[in-house]
């Protein structure tokens, strides 16, 4: 071993003396229970519970509740969407044979055009968790854009609706604000 290698070996030994993974500046996980955030009513008849917003990534994580007979505007997302159905059933009008049921997982690639629907004769509300990357782009029957929602917008709307109800939404995980 040369004298040039001795400082490097000493540095490597000192780095491993405290463990390979440093616990300095470690952060705790954040747990949200369902009762930690209010459900708010949206104009379309659905309910929303905003869990997490990362404005830097344009990510929003929500839980939605849809009544039997619910149908949202046809839309697509500019990024991927991940969904887990917690209860009830729902489907996309464009794919009526693919029914999301309690425990199912759905991946939507970016620009997948769809219309979320709950059957009129559904026995219970459909409750689903969505992680949305990018913007939600609503379109009409001609494919023209009618509105857009992104992470910043959903946070603003959720806060306003919570304030109208007199409820706190301070537990929403917000990054990038």
How are the SSEs ordered, and which strands pair?
Elements (H helix, E strand, L loop, with lengths): L5 H12 L22 E2 L5 E8 L4 E8 L8 E3 L3 E7 L1 E4 L2 E7 L3 E4 L7 E2 L8 E8 L2 E4 L5 E5 L1 H15 L7 E3 L2
Parallel strand pairs: 2-13
Antiparallel strand pairs: 1-2, 2-3, 3-10, 4-11, 5-8, 5-10, 6-7, 6-9, 11-12
Oligomer class: single chain
User: How far apart are the first and last residues' alpha carbons, in Å?
Assistant: 52 Å
Q: What number is the mean pLDDT?
A: 92
Rounded to the nearest angstrom, the radius of gyration is 22 Å
Shape: elongated
The level of helicity is 10-25%
Q: Note the total helix count.
A: 2
What's the total number of strands?
Answer: 13
| Biggest sheet descriptor | 7 strands, mixed
The ordered string of helix (H) and strand (E) elements is: HEEEEEEEEEEEEHE
Q: List low-pLDDT spans.
A: none
Strand content: 35-45%
Secondary structure category: alpha+beta
């Amino acid at each position: 071993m040369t004298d040039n290698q001795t400082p490097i070996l000493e540095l490597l030994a000192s780095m491993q003396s405290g463990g390979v993974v440093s616990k300095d500046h470690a952060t705790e996980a954040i747990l949200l229970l369902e009762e930690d955030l209010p459900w708010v009513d949206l104009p379309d008849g659905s309910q929303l519970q905003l869990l997490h917003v990362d404005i830097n990534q344009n990510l929003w994580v929500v839980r939605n509740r849809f009544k039997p007979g619910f149908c949202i505007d046809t839309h697509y997302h500019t990024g991927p969407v991940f969904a887990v159905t917690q209860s009830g059933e729902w489907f996309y009008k464009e794919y009526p044979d693919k029914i999301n049921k309690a425990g199912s997982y759905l991946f939507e690639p970016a620009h997948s055009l769809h219309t979320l629907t709950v059957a009129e004769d559904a026995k219970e509300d459909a409750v689903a968790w969505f992680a949305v990357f990018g913007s939600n782009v609503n379109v009409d029957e001609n494919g023209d854009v009618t509105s857009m929602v992104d992470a910043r917008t959903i946070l603003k709307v959720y806060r306003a609706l919570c304030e109208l109800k007199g409820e706190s939404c301070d537990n929403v995980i917000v990054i990038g604000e």
